[in-house]
Design a protein that fits this description.
The protein is α+β, with helices and mostly antiparallel strands. Among the domains are: 80 residues, 2-Layer Sandwich (Alpha-Beta Plaits); 30 residues, no CATH class. Helix content is 41%, strand content 10%. The protein has a three-stranded antiparallel β-sheet, with helices on one face. Helix 2 runs antiparallel to helix 3. The model has no long low-confidence stretch (mean pLDDT 85).
Length: 162
């Protein structure tokens, strides 16, 4: 059975774009783009995914729940929403000390929307324990089997995630 296609309507105008008029200005735009991740280090960062049709609900629900728990929360949601991957970062810097509580809220809403706590950046060490609790045991076993097939001698990031 093929799922029904999802249609997202987006309205954009040329006023929403920045077009470099010179090589110097193009380089300046790239500097801005390349420094965004550095500027985000003072946030609680997430790389999550949900079904494309659930992206608006993810952003709305998380905004409501996090706003109630942390009234000063600032949300920086961006990314690859066309395929359901969202970089959902929460600031300002003082919330970093509340990382565990922020993560729990984000991951619970993602799970409720049938999503994943990892998207294109993978699990990483910070999500090691969380993935063991949230991933299906079969999924974890398949990940271990794939790791074994690709790295039978355990040379690539030994003991890091799996």
């Amino acid at each position: 059975m093929t799922p029904a296609p999802v249609r997202l309507e987006v309205e954009a105008t040329l006023a929403d774009a920045a077009i470099a008029q010179s090589l110097e200005k193009a380089r300046a735009l790239w500097r801005i783009r390349e420094t965004i991740p550095e500027a985000q280090f003072t946030n609680v960062k997430h790389d999550v995914s949900v079904p494309v049709s659930s992206v608006p609900e993810l952003i709305e629900r998380l905004g409501e729940v996090l706003g109630k728990r942390f009234p000063a929360a600032e949300i920086y949601a961006f990314g690859h929403v066309g395929d359901g991957n969202v970089h959902y970062n929460v600031g300002p810097a003082p919330l970093v000390k509340e990382r565990a509580a922020v993560n729990r809220i984000v991951y619970d809403v993602v799970a409720a929307l049938q999503g994943s706590i990892s998207a294109e950046h993978g699990l990483g060490q910070l999500k090691r324990e969380e993935s063991a609790q949230r991933k299906d045991p079969l999924e974890l076993e398949l990940m271990r089997a794939l790791k074994q097939a690709l790295d039978p001698r355990g040379l690539m990031n030994p003991g890091k995630v799996i």
